[in-house]
Amino acid sequence: MKYRLLHAALLLALAVDARADSLWPPKASFDDGSSLSLMGAAAYDFNRVDGHGYPAGAPLQDNDDWRRSELGVRYSRPGVLDLAATYDFNSDSWLDVGARIETRAMFGRDLGRVRIGQMKTTVGLEGNTASRSIPFMEFSTVTQAFFENRRVGVDWTLERPQFLAVASYFFKSDIDADNDGDTVGARLVWTPRKQEGDVLHLGLSASRETPDSGIARWRAKPELSLTAARLVDSGVIEHVDNIQRQGMEALWQRGPLQLQGEYLRQRTRRQDGFRDYASDGWYAMGSWLLTGESRPYAGANTSNPKPVRDSGAVELLARYSDLDLDADGIAGGREKNFTVGVNWYLTAYLKFVVDYTRVDARRRGQQADPNLLQARAQLHF
């Protein structure tokens, strides 16, 4: 109870002060142009479920709790380097931790940016969207299943007006060392249009992971924020030699309208005479900011819109996702979800989210079709 009251008091205090843009984010600036600032995010969620999971398990229940409680610090010297570290006290885990170095400062010309530390991996547009900026309550089932999440390693990014290229090498799972192994990846994005409120983004990505454990597992939550239940699950796959991921992504933006979609697939290569396993999925989503703003686009991704009215910005959204884990003798199941939502961005740092999801999941002859209603209050800076 004390923990919840502390969260609530912090959220209320920050929400009141968040209207004073000059105070956020908390920052100290120095004579050489560098700065030291705090970063954070606090999100409290409400889940309401009509229906349940499969009869044999995976109960889906009403719940309300903190979804994330992030706090970090960043040192920035524009044009030279950034140092950052963020911790999520809700999940007791480190998020992004590391350094980003501008090659212009070293070589006198822009040869890209180099990052070293723990960061998100290469394959997945939605997965690489900051958690505070995703339009819906949760990532699609497709992203949950196939995105590799954060790893420790190094990546290089070269960005030009009409393209972005990324090459990465990860040599450790994460700081907590949950699943060691190597991953190499690449991503190429073409942006023939990249102006404020006028974006066309087309991309391809691929990676190859070699897990030291020799095991893999593909599964996803039903886009419900406060549950550990999975309605589709390949189960543990052993004798894994390597995992190959591929992705295709597209994003179109015109003023307050945005369309986005991805196709992701994986192939689990097995040894000792065991059959390979491949599965795939896709999602498509659209959003419309009724109040006329556009989602900011930078670094081949989008972020929360900044309201231009005192009453804030209002966004309507819809997403369809289709994840198929039934293949190659493994009955992982198939799930199709349709979500509609509305977001209210009261300020640049405070937003409220409401999502409604209809789930259609089938696995091993069983069916689950719950309806999910969720709401979130989130502060971020």
Automatic annotation (TrEMBL):
SUPFAM superfamilies: Porins. It comes from the Bacteria. Keywords: Signal. Residues 1-20 form the signal peptide. Pfam families: Porin_O_P. InterPro entries: Porin_dom_sf (IPR023614), Porin_O/P (IPR010870). Gene3D superfamilies: Porin. This is Porin.
